[in-house]
From TrEMBL, chains A, B:
The keyword Acetylation does not apply. Residues 25-415 form the Amidase domain. This is Asp-tRNAAsn/Glu-tRNAGln amidotransferase A subunit. Coiled coil: none annotated. Gene3D superfamilies: Amidase signature (AS) domain (3.90.1300.10). InterPro entries: Amidase, Amidase_dom, AS_sf. One of its GO terms (molecular function) is transferase activity.
Amino acid sequence: MEPWQLTAAAAAVKLREGRLTAEALTRSCLERIAEREAVVKAWSFLDPVLAISSAREVDKSSVMGALHGLPIGVKDMIDTADMPTTYNSPIYQGLRQGRDAACVGVARGEGAVILGKTDTVEFAAAGRRALTRNPHDTARSPGGSSSGSAAAVADGMVPLAFGTQTGGSTIRPASFCGVYAMKPTHGVVNTEGAKRYSHTLDTIGWYGREPADLRLVAEAFRLFDLDRPLEKELQALRIGLCRGPNWHLAAAESREALMLAGQRLEAAGAVVEELALPQAFEGITEAQRVVLLGEGRGAFLQEYVAAHARLHADFRDRVENFAGISGAQLAGAYNLAAECRKLFDALFPRFDAVLTPAAVGEAPLGRQDTGNPVFNSMWTLLHVPCIAIPCTRGPHGMPVGVQIVGPRFGDAALLDVAALVASVIDAA
Amino acid sequence: MEPWQLTAAAAAVKLREGRLTAEALTRSCLERIAEREAVVKAWSFLDPVLAISSAREVDKSSVMGALHGLPIGVKDMIDTADMPTTYNSPIYQGLRQGRDAACVGVARGEGAVILGKTDTVEFAAAGRRALTRNPHDTARSPGGSSSGSAAAVADGMVPLAFGTQTGGSTIRPASFCGVYAMKPTHGVVNTEGAKRYSHTLDTIGWYGREPADLRLVAEAFRLFDLDRPLEKELQALRIGLCRGPNWHLAAAESREALMLAGQRLEAAGAVVEELALPQAFEGITEAQRVVLLGEGRGAFLQEYVAAHARLHADFRDRVENFAGISGAQLAGAYNLAAECRKLFDALFPRFDAVLTPAAVGEAPLGRQDTGNPVFNSMWTLLHVPCIAIPCTRGPHGMPVGVQIVGPRFGDAALLDVAALVASVIDAA
């Protein structure tokens, strides 16, 4: 087995025990990339010399932290002090920031090797798409906007990668690419240095190839200080199976994935109970749209004013408030979100996690359509932690995942649930 | 009259009419700074050659926007592409960011001359204080954390300056220094590129020497698109006089300022009515503390992990959660804040603005004590726009202000109220 084939968690054990070096792992990942990148196009910046030099630095020090020696890809929405950051915008080609984004700084401080920058949809929002293709079928999208991060982890190019989620940009690509991903509780991972789209929604997430990979990154961010561990066995779990207000938009394969996941959990001894969300949730998808567009208005004003001609029309529309969002509408959306957050949190501890679709269906064809975020956007607005778990295959043989969701700040317990249920749900 | 003595609004007229150049105004400000800086110590970075060169660039173009030709000071918490940014932290000495913070980019795009960086409390939070002194009495604090910005505007060094407010860092220094300041609705001005302290609270604000100055900056940020103008005369105004839940902490001079402002408004024909906030507001100050500390936990993790020894103990404590804030407490604080925001918004249009203290009292003696933010922190958590207005003098002859507060997204109407009431309240 080549080192690039190891999951982050498996590599971490070898690294700690001295049976693998950061340099060897990094070189192996670079070899995998050299072999596959022409087809997958996951990376917007990669400097093998720099990556190997970073790995050597890590090898020189004693174990630095939870991510010691692990290569990690960084979505090109997120600043890096030693690599350019473009946000996939023509305005920021060649941009060199003076310091790392907060999440990159933490990862580096915890011993990670920043491998390179992964391609993204412009400003992780709209406009230009990533060049990245889905490793399972290069005619299809890996999803967006964390296109390169999801594809790189799925294809074995790197064991971990950072994404961001404002609508469904972390969890949806995980479903499309057949990998695991975590979107933590909003705000617990500092978004500083990630280009802003919507301050109420923007969340740093990450990808791995098993639940224990996600846990390593969560440890680096000290998410375990906020919550108590689950301390339950699989048979004692109570899972709320939630179709949610957008079920009518789910393709057959996503409906099947949810039912299959529920059946597998029941068969394994967990209690699975249908969960109908309260009436207030009927407006939550629209509230997310109002927040997204209302906040996008201010988020791209800098580029609108300072680099108007190079700003994609999608963003000029937002600054000009083409959707006509009023302050009153925005306040109303905030109020509804706050109400629904409280209602959702109150479902716990009746449930240990909520099981719900991760995407509409399989990855779409082509590069322009990165998929519909409708099964993610409400959870992003609710600020709750979400973990994507691969589940089945769709009619074209593409991966289809589900996600489990916990209450705000229930990140640690949700990771415990993921560790218990993943091998049951992910029976592929 | 020297150009530096002009308010921003007065200078803007001359600049637009070609009766003043950005270079002449910038040079005049630099002369004022040369004369006063040794005593006031407002600036942490100032390069006269760079400032004059920026002014010349502005003079070369046709009118660029709302801030055409106006020098502006930038709190050294906020990134600038052409000047170092330190956040007053030993970790970031000499930091050069590759791009401007969003607010700086907008100001520059609207024609402002970025004059220099103003001194701040470390990370606008705790640790090291600014070296800045209060121009009215150099034995006293200008307040914090926007110490340099408030003092520089008060002392005529620059007509406008950016601050930030997480607790009371914009409005309180305005009261202490006898200037005007605006903290807009949370989120309407992109905080990207300002060092994060608390994403729920961090707000970019600005200083001027008359209400029309504040309006110019609000125009640059398109705050007028969100709200309808007031379209009322002074005699038709209904003002809610609000002692608030922390009245017992107000010094005699702040109590007097509030009463005086109310009396002056009544004498001028406005309706002033006592406003008792609903019961829920009793917990709002504590909720702000929980949010501040709970979010500070993640905000400084990067520095904790990557530069532990150079991070002030105040921040190490936060990362280690010395206050023991749990996820449940934080969610509870968010829920209460959301409830109070809704309740407060509902007071309008019964009132046109709420009048309330801006600070506990006069500026404290010395450099270590930057004053208590208790009359600001609840409004910051409520996300509502606040405008500081000078009102009277305290027992030591120091300025004492008040503030007017509007509903979320009522920034435009609140500026209209300020334009009507300022000359009545500010009778000094």
